[in-house]
Amino acid sequence: MEMILLFGLLFLFIFMGMQVPLALAGSLVVTLLLAFPYLDPIIVVQKSVGAMARAWPLLTIPLFIMLGEIFKVGRMSTRIVDVTNIFVGRLPGGLAIVNIVSSYFFGGISGSATADTSAIGGIMIPLMKKQGYSSSFSTVVTITSSTLGPIVPPSVLVILISWVTEQSVGMLFLAGYLPALISMLGMIAVAVIISKKRGYPRQPTPPFREAVRICTDALPVLVTPFIIVGAIVSGLVTIVESAVVALAWALFITVVWYREFAWRDLGTVMHNTVATTAFVGMLLALASAFAWLVTFSGVPQQVSDLLVQYNVGRFGFFAASIAIFLVLGTFLNAGEVVLMVMPILFPAALSVGIDPIHFCMIAALAMVIGNVTPPVGLCLFIGCAISGDKIEDLIRPLVPFLAVMVAVIVLLTLVPSVVLWLPETFGYVPK
Amino acid sequence: MHLIRKLERSVHSALVFVTGAITVAIACVLLLQVVSRMIFKYPFAWPEELAGFLFTWLIFLGASVAYRSGSMIGIDWLVQMLPTRARAVINTLTSLLMIMLLMFLVWKGVETTLKSANSQTTVLRFSWAWVYAAFPVGFSFLLASITLDFLANPKSANTGILEDESGR
Amino acid sequence: QEFTFVHASLNPAQHADFPVNMNFVERVQELSDGRISFKVFDSGALGDERQMVEQMQSGTIATARLTPAALSGLCSGISILNLPFLFTDGQALLDAVQTDEFKAICDDILISAGIRPLSYWWMGVRDLYTKEPVESLEDVQGMKLRVWEDPYVVKAWEDLGTIPTPISFSELYTSLQTGAVDGAEGWAESYNSRSFYEVAPHLTRIGYVQIASTLAISESVWQSLPTDLQAAVQQAADENSTFALETFTELQDGIYTTSAKVATVHEVSDLEAWSARSTGVYETFAAEHPGAAADLLTQIVESN
Ligand code: NA
Ligand code: NA
Description:
The complex is a heterotrimer.
Chain A: H1 2-15, H2 20-35, H3 42-53, H4 60-73, H5 76-88, H6 94-107, H7 113-130, H8 135-146, H9 156-165, H10 169-198, H11 208-222, H12 224-233, H13 239-257, H14 263-296, H15 299-310, H16 313-331, H17 334-351, H18 356-369, H19 378-387, H20 391-414, H21 416-425
Helix pairs in contact in A: 1-2, 2-14, 3-14, 4-7, 4-13, 4-14, 5-6, 5-11, 6-7, 6-8, 6-10, 7-8, 7-19, 8-19, 8-20, 9-17, 9-18, 10-18, 10-20, 10-21, 12-13, 14-17, 15-17, 16-17, 16-18, 17-18, 18-20
Chain B: H1 2-38, H2 46-68, H3 77-80, H4 84-115, H5 129-132, H6 134-152
Helix pairs in contact in B: 1-2, 2-6, 4-6
Chain C: E1 3-8, H1 18-31, E2 36-41, H2 49-57, E3 63-66, H3 68-71, H4 90-96, H5 100-112, E4 115-130, H6 137-140, E5 144-146, H7 151-159, E6 163-165, H8 172-178, E7 183-187, H9 188-193, E8 202-218, H10 219-224, H11 227-262, E9 264-267, H12 271-276, H13 279-288, H14 292-303
Parallel strand pairs in C: 1-2, 1-3, 5-6, 5-7, 8-9
Antiparallel strand pairs in C: 3-8, 4-7, 4-8
Helix pairs in contact in C: 1-11, 5-14, 7-13, 13-14
The structure holds sodium ion (2 copies).
């Protein structure tokens, strides 16, 4: 009963237009005052501050966000696009594929989908339009491929998931490469079919010497993902420290190597970093207070009892969870969904015998779809802002891409070994 | 009103500067951790605690920065579908609720801060009150910004974005 | 009048300490004739230990088992329980917490901070596990070890000639695997249950710290209880301390039998030398806690 009040108020406040962190706090405070008179509401302050002060892995968030911002200011995304073009530009629908593959690589540097949309989309959408691609197709390719960003490590979303579920960030990071690769191949297939049908052009391959020059020039950017992951896997640094090493590297190449960082850019970088980090942090802080009350009322226990009682099995549970992630993801941002439902679903998933890493990865894949679906899709909004398209015009072109993404989720649910193979290679023992 | 807006803008710039400095400080603390391990082969225990303390201040002081730069937007599509009168009523109600909520949270934050004064952190042994103070302080700035927006425009939603920025 | 207590356990229900928690909970229910009932939260569901302490101060959580680390923020003298090679066995530790000196430096301070210690648990000993075999003090020189974050323990390992490395417990397996650390100190139970033997196949029995815990009740909850129920709770807690000693004594022997099947278990011949290196930490502790705490330390050292 208290939980109906809590979640009812939460959604009421959200749909009244209250910012999600404040809606979390508001529903929590009102529920505490009405339904739990014996609990002191200072628990809200204690839990939200406590969560921030002891959140060692979360320190990577401002660093990975700043890394993405620095790479947005410099011409790093152009370099990634140029190199990708050499290898895949000659396929039918060359630029669309360049767009998709570039997002995979940029995802290996940036922690978020929105950074990817604005960095890659800002270059690719105008370029594709100039080559005769329809505006809506260019935007749709951009935004769907930018959902690879949070799946390829590093990823702020995965850091949040690991924080909520207490799974190793390193193992979760490793688990992301193959699912993202398969999603990427699926998106490329769709893009090629559509491009062939519409006769979109192939890209001329640059002459060999030019190609070599482009690759050499881009080398410092291209090694960045290997620095991040290499530093972790080699055991030289921990995940948290890898973020700072990567950031130092990013600063070194933009400021010293390429000399493309003007000091006036520093203001923009810092402002965007602080604003994004603070928003994510507020969400985390208040969601952990919210999750506390949910736990205190015994909901996770009731959910897993119900599951055992109705004996839904692993696939039944997966199907239900994916549906919840997809539905909530269309209304809320991925981070918000993680913080609200993972504390309930994750323990239940373990109780029906699902591997923790497998579940976390499927959850991440399902949630990022929400980034591109209206009414609330951050990447969708940014993509439209760049291309000037209307959201309604994108819904039909989105369908084939969404279908591929859902198909990938189903495939990975049925074949857990694809997700778990890399973590296992590095010593993970599946449940 | 004009003067208060101007003051708020200077406070906002100051907050951007301070939170930016905190972010740099976090990066430096972590860098020190790496360097101390790799070069001196001698890591310290305090960076983790200090970084957590800095992170808390970054988040709560950054709250109003996030609000002002439009990163903290609410979901407005449902309210947008309503007729103008109803929309105005909902927007006013939402703003008032947010203001009351923030006042309550600031009050509870002060209470928590005072209560935690004699509890010390594990490694650096400073009082937890220094950590908890981030909550009421940060939320006071957010409260001030939202209240100003409400007073200036009681019938519209609080997006935090100042549309008349260039006109002044 | 009836009471519903919230009892919080940091560890999941499968953990070895959970039955000891439940022994206390069930005993309180019996002795109070059901007038006190419990809601039990395991796996740190209500927060980490520091947050549990705060929730006990505000009365949200009634009872919990807390480690000295969690309480040292309120009462730094409790760190005496963590000093390396100080207590010879579990009974020595349980005797020390009964002294007037200990009550003055810990219990009284905790009560005024809103946490009332009911009784103490002995939970076994901390050993050393490493990638390379360790059979003497010489073998650990220069090793990078993951050490638990108590400042005195860190200093002791420095004095022993190692490089203590702060790494979160959840990253320990990978850190051992990649060689970011050469080993770690800790309870052999987690060595077995977390499969650390796969990446650090050598366990050395040094038993250098007697693991202590405080079974505590929120002072505001305590004050709300009538005297007969206070007596029931206290009796259950006293019995629970004995139950813990028996349970963990039996467990500790079983742990090594299990370890021997999956890893090489070593003993050191020069344990005296290890222990002698720890006197520096005692001096630091005494200097930082003059008065009753320093006196207690001297007493224990002399009785050894
Ligand atoms: Na990424
Ligand atoms: Na893209």
